[in-house]
Design goal:
Strand order of the largest sheet: 3-4-2-1-5-6
Shape: globular
Oligomer: single chain
Helix content: 40-55%
């Protein structure tokens, strides 16, 4: 019962890194790495929610810096994202059954208007669900998120004496969702690269050498076991 309670209250962030390197390793076109990465995203999401009963997942799918990649690659990734959004719209009944709230976080205005509209529709239809939270970071950067949050605060003319950590958190893309307890980064890189800059201050960070397309449910379990053995002091 205690372990179930831990899982059902856990927020895990995942930096899905290494799609292109996985493709190179397997002598495949780089685009196949992104395709395989999306397929793995679906597998891990389903496993985390249905089998492990994880409360919240936040995936880093596309950063603000990723826009500077080759046009052909960005265009292909946009097709994958649009396909993913369309699939989520079709799974409305399943989202309702498992009470999954879906959020797309980041500077969404940079996406085509049709895609923005579909993302907003999904968020609106699932906003009352509260058993599980699925956040997908697209055109996201932690500093960009903070700049957008501060601009909203200024625009609403909130006085300086009312600004505190709780207020700032309420203006972030993840407002209303607990900060991540555990962040997993694949591919061997050991940095957060702007992922949940504000929210990650007390997150436990787990690095694994495997590239994202080869990250398995067993690897996910190992990360959770590692987390369970951490002693979280929160600065005390």
């Amino acid at each position: 019962m205690e372990l179930f309670q831990i899982m059902s209250n856990l927020h895990i962030g995942i930096i899905m890194d290494g799609n292109r390197r996985w493709a190179r390793k397997n002598n495949l076109p780089l685009m196949q790495g992104h395709k395989k990465g999306y397929e793995n995203f679906k597998k891990i999401t389903e496993y985390a929610f249905k089998e492990k009963k994880i409360k919240a997942l936040t995936f880093f799918a596309f950063s603000t810096e990723n826009w500077s990649r080759p046009k052909e690659e960005v265009a292909y990734m946009m097709k994958i994202f649009d396909h993913a959004v369309n699939e989520m719209k079709k799974r409305e009944a399943e989202n309702e059954k498992y009470k999954i709230q879906i959020r797309f976080i980041g500077d969404l205005k940079r996406f085509p208007s049709k895609m923005q509209k579909k993302m907003l529709e999904i968020m609106d239809k699932t906003k009352k669900n509260s058993n599980h939270f699925l956040n997908i970071a697209l055109s996201y950067g932690g500093r960009n998120e903070l700049v957008r949050a501060f601009k909203k605060i200024v625009q609403e003319k909130i006085s300086a004496d009312k600004i505190d950590e709780a207020l700032i958190s309420n203006y972030l893309d993840t407002a209303g969702i607990q900060d991540p307890d555990l962040i997993i980064r694949t591919s061997g890189e050991q940095r957060l690269s702007g992922f949940l800059t504000w929210q990650s201050v007390y997150s436990e960070i787990y690095f694994i050498e495997k590239f994202w397309p080869e990250f398995s449910s067993n690897d996910f379990d190992q990360a959770i076991k590692w987390f369970e053995n951490r002693f979280r002091r929160f600065g005390t």
